[in-house]
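Hi again,

Forgot to attach this to my earlier email, sorry! This is the prediction with 1-deoxynojirimycin bound. I've pasted everything inline since the attachment limit keeps bouncing my files.
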Amino acid sequence: MRLLVVSILHLYICAHTVLWAQIQTVPVYKDHEIPVEERITDLLSEMTLEEKVWQLTQYTLGINNNENNIEKTVQEVPAEIGSLIYFEMGPELRNRVQHQAIENSRLGIPILFGCDVIHGFRTIYPIPLGQACSWNPELVEKACAVAAQEAKMSGVDWTFSPMIDVARDGRWGRVAEGYGEDPLTNAVFGVASVRGYQGNSLSDKNKIAACLKHYIGYGASEGGRDYVYTEVSRQTMWDTYIPPYEAGIKAGAATVMSAFNNINGIPATVNKYTLVEVLKKRWKHLGFVVSDWDAVGQLVNQGVAESRKEAARMAFTAGVEMNMRDNCYRDYLPELVKEGKISLNQIDDAVRRVLRIKFELGLFEHPYTPTVTEDKRYLLPESKLVAMKLAEESIVLLKNKKNMLPLFKQKKIALIGPVAKNKGCLLGSWSAHGKSSDVTSIYEALMLEFENKIQLMYAFGCDFEGEDVLSFTEALNIAKQADIILLCLGEKQRWSGENASRSTIALPRIQEQLALELKKVGKPIVLILSNGRPLDLSRLEPLSDAILEIWQPGINGAQALAGILSGRINPSGKLSITFPYSVGQIPIYYNRRKAARWDQGFYMDITSEPLFPFGYGLSYTEFKYGAIIPSATTVKRGEKLLIEVCVTNTGKCDGAETVHWFISDPYCSVTRPVKELKYFEKQFIRVGETKTYRFEVDLERDLGFVDETGKRFLETGEYYILVGDQQVKVELVD
Ligand code: NOJ
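Structure tokens for the complex follow:
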């Protein structure tokens, strides 16, 4: 009996010890009930220097991942790697690599999978430059949420988006990827996009981490050439390039990508002022900075570091935590620590930032992506609707002589041009896993929209470039038989985007020549343009009766266009970037600073005005603006100011109108642009209806200005609030 009691006691103690031992072996960092910072501290205390450096290293996965290569690719990825750029479309490969990381590495830290999800993952919607023309940030947020869902379900945790580089030079191919020339526009759409990707919490279902890029001033690339020097004064940095980033950080963007450009002699990748002083110290960003592709190694080319090792030291100490692809950190950080050139504390801070995002994404709890069939992941009907709506709102009606559009009476239509049946160009650059087979071409969309109501004749006309005029004849023949010509011109899919600079932004001569020949037929021409940058239309515009800018509108863009042509949809897009009269006017943008002589200094050979200014766009209906009514004409600091304007739809169809609210400060100790956009709002107005638009002016934010240190001031004196062609004066007094 005693023996039994002893044995039971013995058993109890043993079981308890085993249980206790088990409890003891669940490390703190794996316990999701413990606060994230404690989990990180615990994990850091376990890690070797080499393991830490792996967390700061990013490889690519899947460039060459056809059936035969996958195995090799997976085996080549170290189980300890911090992050991978994931080029695959499904979760299977991710899960296999993740299993390797969790099971074969000492600490089982999950990998962070990144991808360029720029304007959709598989459901491709318009390029960002077009999205901004919708002036509908809620819709852009929804589109980014669709992209996040498709990406997440496919094994992506992190997108290298949004690009919020203010860009004013159409020659720069990357102008397509951002929200145009204006700081506020980039800020508002950047924030919408961060919200769409990240939601309320990174750990929410189907949310991914966003990345603000390219920090900073990349859009100022000299002559529109990519990767080159940028001259950005501190004043311009603060009043033009920084606002979108400041807004994006406030909105909670998890990560930031440093830019390729050299800013005033100090490349963005080693720029302590922008990365440490501003981003980390002033804005207290707690996420991490990733270098751009090979950008650390390229510091040698830029002439600031004499070796890859020195490049690693400089980029790391300037606040770039993760090294994309060129392995400078992997190869040199351990050595630099041993030599005392980088401290362990600095390494720990960087690793903490990377781990923080992994914990916040819930990767330690859910490292794998559930395998769901493609039809449940992509191109869901509701996702396609969002893409369609965004395309509808992004299209800009630039000209409509004698109300040529919509097509009411015309029965015989000649559809001509290289864009008419081309699907790739509608997808645009950076179209992730978008497929041409998902796209409806303009030809197909017109057939669907008009069914048997019109006779649609098609001719190729000419290619995007080259000198072959053979197809002109057929185009001219169908043009002669038609009531109207729909001429679809534009740019090839990869004529914009990264490393896609052009010296001229006019369309190639062959396309202009085709238009010229068609004009001689004497039928009205509707010019339909698909492109990723503003164009020089100085020769095409006079040949056209109507012009529709559809951008690179994504998979459903052609249906949106067809709806606009038929009148089912009333166009409401307005330009997010100025269309110069010719390339020689560049840089040209609406918020320029004033000249010393307002009546002189113009070009002698061409107009000094752009062809289509920022904010320009027509509708099928008419909107009449009432007077601008301010709640007060004299205000004091700290007071509220409310400005209203009523807009009536006086035309013949319902439509949406965007009101842009600008301010102008005629005299200021730091000169201000002629006008600056401070707020915008889009409302739908039925025929005969009047809607009130309200702008609640925050005096500091909207009338104030920043100096070259980023300090904000508000000076007394007169200000003007501008809407359309009206303005109202408001005085700020002590
Ligand atoms: C280089 C591009 O500049 C950047 O925008 C992109 O995110 C990275 N490559 C990764 O593909």
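The longest strand covers residues 655-664. The longest helix spans residues 2-25.

That should be everything now.

G.
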